[in-house]
Design goal:
A: alpha/beta, six-stranded mixed β-sheet, 23% strand, B: mainly alpha, ABC transporter involved in vitamin B12 uptake, BtuC, two-stranded antiparallel sheet
Chain lengths: 275, 615
C-alpha cells in the first residue's frame, strides 16, 4: 500500500458516509434479491463487493442507480435519499456506473461517447445551438477539452486517431476502459464498477487494478467494485463486503474476510469434515 | 446491380479471374427458381393492369410504349442477375462467357413463359371475378392483336431475347456496359421526363430542340432516340471515371479546403434552385413546390426518426395541425373564430400551437419504446385526423367540409403566395427548407444532437449516463412537429382549403418512405429521396413526372422499398453513421482483414510477455 493509499484509508475511517444503504430489500416476486442490506461507502474509499453468482451484487448496483425499485429500506447519498429518482437524476447527483456486459454507444466515436456523458453537467439547450451563441461555442469547447483530458488518463490507448473511431472498433479491453472514461465524464463522486476486469488477461487486469487506485488517488472518486478476481480484490480494496443470497455475510479488510469461515462456506460449500 | 461487392471498402482488391465456365454448366435449379419468380412477377404486372393503362404513353415513337416497357424490364433484370458472382477475398471469379448468355436466355425464357401461360389462360378461362383486370383487352395487348398462341410464342421469344441481352451485358467490359446503360437510361429518361423537358425548354426558348426530339403525340422520335443514345454513349465513354475521380478528390480534401468545396457545392445547388424556376413553366414549378413541401416534411421527420431514432408513424398529425391552425387563423370562412390574421403573423401562432401539440402527443408516447411507440404514434396520427373530421368539432373545423377560401400568404406586403402561382410557392418553400436544413444541421452537432444519438443507440445506458431521455426525446418530437407545421402552413395557403381527407395515414407512410429511401439521418439523402419519390412518382395526392404511374404509385413505392431494404438498407445517400450501424460487423471484419484492428488487448488472447503499461 502506498502512502496515499494509507492516507485515504485513514480519511475513510473518519469521513462521513458518502453512500449508505439502510436495511435495503429488493424482492422479485417471491425472490429476495437483496435482504435487509446495510452498508456504507465513505468518501475516497474503495469498497469491493464480492459473492457467488446470484448473490445480488449487480442488483445492488441497479438499486443504487434506480434501475430497479427498492422494496423496503432506504438508499442515502450525501445525506439525501435516492429513492424515487430516475436513473439520470441519480447520475446527476454524482453516482456513475459501468456495465458488466460492456454497453457503449457502439456507433458513436470514442470522443463522442465521453462528450455525451457530460450531458447532465452541461446546460446549453437547443436555442444556443441554433443561434450559435458564444456561450454555446464555449461550452462545446469545454466539453471537448474535458473529454480529451479524461481519455488521456488511459495513456495513449484512447487518444490520437482512435478518438474519432467508432467505439465498436475498439478491442475488448479498450471498451472496458472507455466505459470507465464515460463514467468519469459524468463528474461523479462515486463510481460503481461492475466486474471491470472480467474477461481480461492477467497483464490487462493488473493494469486495470492500478487504474482503479489511480482513479481514487488522482481524481478523488469513491469506488465500489464488484469483482470475482480475488487478486484484484486484494490489491484494490480498503474494505470488502461479502454478499450471499442477498444478505451481507461478512465485511472487513481483505485478510479478515478471506479467512472468515462463513465466506469460505458460501464460496466452496460446507466441508464434509464438519458434519 | 451489386456486382461491385461493397461500397464501404474503398480500393476493393481486384478479383482474381478464372477461365469462363462451360456454357451449359449451370445450377439449373437456381435458373428455374430465378426465372419462375420473374415469371410470376410478369404475370402480376400484367394483371395489375399497368401495361394496358400505360400503353397510351409512347416512349420511342412507333416502336415502344410504356406499357410494353414495364413488361420488358423483369426478363432483362433476371437475365443480368443470374450471372452475378459474389466476389470473395482470394477466391477467383469466373470470367463471363457463353455460360452467362445461356443462363440469361434460360432465365428470360422462363420469365417470358409467365406471360405466355397467362395469355393462354386468358384466352380459355374467365377469371374476371377475382381478378378484375382479367380482360380481353389485356390478351389483345399481349398478343399484339393476334391469337393467344401468337402471344405465347412471342412472349417466350421476347423474354428469351431480353434475358439474353441481360446475359450479354455481363460480357461487356465496364466501359461498354456503362455506355449501354447510359444510352438506355438517357432514352428512357428523356421519354419519361418529357413534360419536364418540354416545359423547361419552353422557358429557355429551346422549343426547336424539343420539337425535333419528341413526336407531336408524345414519345421520343425513333431518329432522335438513336441520336440521343449515340451522344450519351459517347459522353459516357469519354467521361468514364471522371465522376469517381472528382468524388475521391473531394473525399481526400481536408479541413478548410473541404469546407470551401462543400460551400461551393452548396452555393451551386442553391443558385440552381433559385434560377431554375424562372425558366420553368407552371407545371414544373407546381412539381417543384410539391417536392419542396415533402422535403420540408421529410426534414422534420428526419429529426424525429433519423436523429433521435423515434419511429413516428403519425407524423401527418403535425402537418394537419399546422394546416388547420393556419386555416382557422387566416380564413374569413373559418366556422367558429376567424381572426383573419396575415399569414406571417398566423405562422408564429401556428408554430406555438403545433409545438404544444407535439408536447401533448409526445408526452404519453415518448415513455414507450420500439414497436409500442410506433403503434401508438400511428394511433395518434389517426386520432388527429378523426378529430378534425368529427361532428363534435365540426363547429370549429367544418367536419368533412373542411375550411375553404384560405387567403394567399402575404409576405411583408411584397408578394402574395398562393396556388395560382406555384413559382412563388416554391420560393417560399425553399426559404423554409433552408431554415429546416439549418436547424437539423446545427442541432445534430450540438449537445442535444449527441444526446439523441445516445438515446438511439441505447436508451437504458443513455439514461444511466445522466441523459434525461424523456426531455431529449420530447425535444426531438417538438422540433419535428414545428418543422412539419411550416409545411402545413404553406400547404394551406397554397391549396386554399383544408379537408380531413388531405391528412390520411398514407401521408405519414409516404414521408417515412421518403426518409428511409433517401437515407435516414442525412439531410442530402432526405432531399434526394423526396426528389426521386415525390418528384418522379408523385406524392399521395400530388402527381409526379410519371403521371401515368399515379395509379400504381403505391405498388412501385412498395417494390422500391423492398428492393432498397434488401440491397442498400442505409438508403440512397446514407449518413456515414447509419451505414456504420447497419454494416457494423462487415466493417469490423474488413478492418480486421486489412490488419487495422485495434488489438492491444484482445480478451481471449493468451497472456503474452508483460507489456510495459503507460501511465
Amino acid at each position: 500500500m502506498t502512502e496515499t493509499h494509507a492516507a485515504a484509508a485513514i480519511a475513510a475511517e473518519t469521513g462521513p458516509p458518502l453512500l449508505e444503504t439502510k436495511a435495503l430489500s429488493i424482492d422479485f416476486g417471491g425472490l429476495h434479491a437483496l435482504n435487509q442490506l446495510t452498508f456504507e461507502v465513505r468518501e475516497g474509499e474503495i469498497v469491493s463487493v464480492i459473492g457467488p453468482n446470484g448473490a445480488g451484487k449487480t442488483t445492488l448496483f441497479n438499486a443504487i442507480t434506480a434501475t430497479v425499485e427498492a422494496s423496503a429500506g432506504d438508499i442515502v447519498f450525501e445525506g439525501r435519499s435516492l429513492l424515487g429518482l430516475d436513473p439520470n437524476q441519480v447520475t446527476s447527483r454524482g453516482i456513475a456506473r459501468t456495465f458488466q456486459n460492456v454497453r457503449l454507444f457502439a456507433n458513436m466515436s470514442v470522443l463522442e461517447n465521453v462528450m455525451v456523458s457530460q450531458h447532465c453537467r452541461t446546460k446549453q439547450h437547443a436555442f444556443g445551438a441554433l443561434l450559435y451563441t458564444k456561450a454555446f461555442r464555449r461550452e462545446e469547447a469545454e466539453i471537448r477539452q474535458r473529454a480529451e483530458k479524461i481519455l488521456s488518463f488511459f495513456g495513449t490507448r484512447l487518444v490520437g486517431y482512435r478518438m474519432d473511431q467508432p467505439a465498436f472498433t475498439l478491442s475488448y479491453a479498450n471498451r472496458r476502459r472507455l466505459e470507465i472514461a464515460r463514467a468519469m465524464a459524468t463528474q461523479p463522486k462515486l463510481i460503481l464498477l461492475d466486474e471491470p476486469v472480467a474477461g481480461m488477461n492477467p497483464v490487462e487486469s493488473a493494469e486495470l487494478t492500478g487504474l482503479v487506485g489511480r482513479l481514487r488517488d488522482e481524481w478523488g472518486f469513491a469506488i465500489v467494485v464488484i469483482e470475482h478476481d480475488m487478486g484484484v480484490v486484494k490489491e484494490v480494496s480498503d474494505r470488502v463486503v461479502v454478499l450471499d443470497h442477498g444478505e451481507k455475510i461478512a465485511e472487513g479488510d481483505y485478510a479478515a474476510v478471506a479467512s472468515d469461515p462463513e465466506v469460505i462456506e458460501a464460496y466452496l460449500g460446507k466441508g464434509t469434515g464438519e458434519k | 446491380m451489386t456486382d461491385t461487392a461493397s461500397p464501404l471498402v474503398p480500393g476493393e482488391a481486384k478479383a482474381l479471374l478464372a477461365p469462363p465456365r462451360p456454357a451449359l454448366s449451370h445450377d439449373w435449379r437456381r435458373i428455374v427458381r430465378i426465372g419462375s419468380i420473374a415469371a410470376l412477377g410478369q404475370a402480376f404486372i400484367a394483371l395489375s393492369n399497368m401495361p394496358v393503362r400505360l400503353d397510351e404513353r409512347l416512349i420511342v415513337k412507333p416502336v415502344l410504349s410504356l406499357g410494353y416497357l414495364v413488361l420488358l424490364f423483369l426478363p432483362l433484370a433476371v437475365g443480368y442477375r443470374q450471372g452475378h458472382q459474389t466476389v470473395r477475398e482470394g477466391v477467383p471469379v469466373f470470367r463471363p462467357g457463353l455460360n452467362e448468355v445461356v443462363g440469361g436466355f434460360s432465365c428470360g425464357l422462363i420469365a417470358g413463359g409467365g406471360l405466355a401461360v397467362l395469355a393462354v389462360l386468358l384466352a380459355n378461362f374467365d377469371l374476371r371475378e377475382p381478378l378484375v383486370n382479367w380482360s380481353p383487352i389485356l390478351l389483345d395487348l399481349l398478343a399484339f392483336g393476334n391469337q393467344a398462341w401468337f402471344a405465347a410464342v412471342i412472349w417466350l421469344a421476347i423474354g428469351a431475347g431480353m434475358g439474353t441481352v441481360g446475359g450479354v451485358l455481363r460480357l461487356l467490359g465496364p466501359t461498354s456496359r456503362r455506355a449501354v446503360v447510359t444510352m438506355a437510361i438517357a432514352v428512357a429518361g428523356a421519354a419519361v421526363l418529357e413534360s419536364l423537358v418540354v416545359d423547361l425548354a419552353e422557358g429557355m426558348g429551346l422549343e426547336a430542340l424539343t420539337d425535333r426530339l419528341y413526336d407531336r403525340r408524345g414519345g421520343v422520335n425513333w431518329n432522335s432516340a438513336l441520336g440521343l443514345a449515340g451522344v450519351c454513349g459517347i459522353l459516357a465513354v469519354a467521361g468514364r471515371g471522371r465522376l469517381r475521380q472528382a468524388r475521391s478528390r473531394h473525399a481526400e480534401l481536408q479541413g478548410a479546403k473541404r469546407t470551401q468545396a462543400n460551400a461551393g457545392l452548396m452555393a451551386l445547388a442553391a443558385a440552381t434552385l433559385i434560377v431554375l424556376p424562372l425558366f420553368a413553366g407552371k407545371l414544373t414549378n407546381e412539381l417543384l413546390a410539391n417536392v419542396g413541401l415533402f422535403v420540408l416534411l421529410a426534414l422534420g421527420l428526419n429529426v424525429v426518426v433519423g436523429l433521435a431514432g423515434i419511429l413516428d408513424l403519425g407524423y401527418v398529425a403535425f402537418f394537419a395541425v399546422g394546416s388547420y391552425s393556419t386555416a382557422v387563423l387566416t380564413a374569413a370562412t373559418s366556422p367558429r373564430i376567424a381572426p383573419e390574421m396575415p399569414w406571417l403573423v398566423a405562422l408564429i401562432v401556428v408554430v406555438i400551437i403545433t409545438g404544444l401539440a407535439g408536447l401533448f402527443i409526445g408526452a404519453p408516447v415518448i415513455r414507450m419504446r420500439g414497436d409500442y411507440l410506433a403503434i401508438v404514434t400511428l394511433g395518434f396520427g389517426e386520432i388527429i385526423r378523426l378529430l378534425f373530421l368529427s361532428d363534435w368539432l365540426s363547429g370549429w373545423f367544418g367536419g368533412s367540409q373542411g375550411i375553404t377560401m384560405i387567403p394567399a400568404a402575404d409576405i411583408f406586403g411584397l408578394t402574395e403566395v398562393s396556388g395560382t402561382d406555384p413559382r412563388r410557392v416554391f420560393y417560399l418553400v425553399l426559404v423554409f427548407c433552408a431554415l429546416a436544413i439549418y436547424v437539423s444541421w446545427r442541432l445534430e452537432r450540438s449537445r442535444m444532437g449527441r444526446a439523441w444519438m445516445a438515446v438511439r443507440e441505447d436508451e437504458t445506458v443513455a439514461e444511466a449516463m445522466g441523459i434525461n431521455t424523456v426531455n431529449v426525446k420530447l425535444l426531438a418530437f417538438v422540433v419535428g412537429a414545428v418543422l412539419g407545421s411550416f409545411s402545413g402552413a404553406i400547404f394551406a395557403a397554397k391549396v386554399g382549403s383544408v379537408f380531413p381527407a388531405s391528412f390520411l395515414i398514407l401521408v405519414s407512410i409516404v414521408i417515412l418512405v421518403v426518409v428511409i429511401f433517401g437515407g435516414m439521418g442525412n439531410i442530402v439523402g432526405v432531399i434526394a429521396g423526396a426528389a426521386v419519390l415525390i418528384g418522379v412518382l408523385g406524392g399521395p395526392k400530388q402527381p409526379g413526372l410519371l403521371i401515368e404511374f399515379s395509379e400504381f404509385k403505391l405498388l412501385i413505392y412498395g417494390a422500391l422499398l423492398i428492393w432498397m431494404m434488401l440491397a442498400r438498407p442505409e438508403g440512397l445517400m446514407p449518413s456515414v453513421r447509419r451505414t456504420r450501424e447497419l454494416h457494423q460487423q462487415e466493417m469490423a471484419q474488413d478492418a480486421w482483414l486489412r490488419g487495422e484492428v485495434d488489438d492491444d488487448g484482445g480478451g481471449n488472447r493468451p497472456a503474452g510477455p508483460p507489456v510495459a503499461t503507460q501511465s
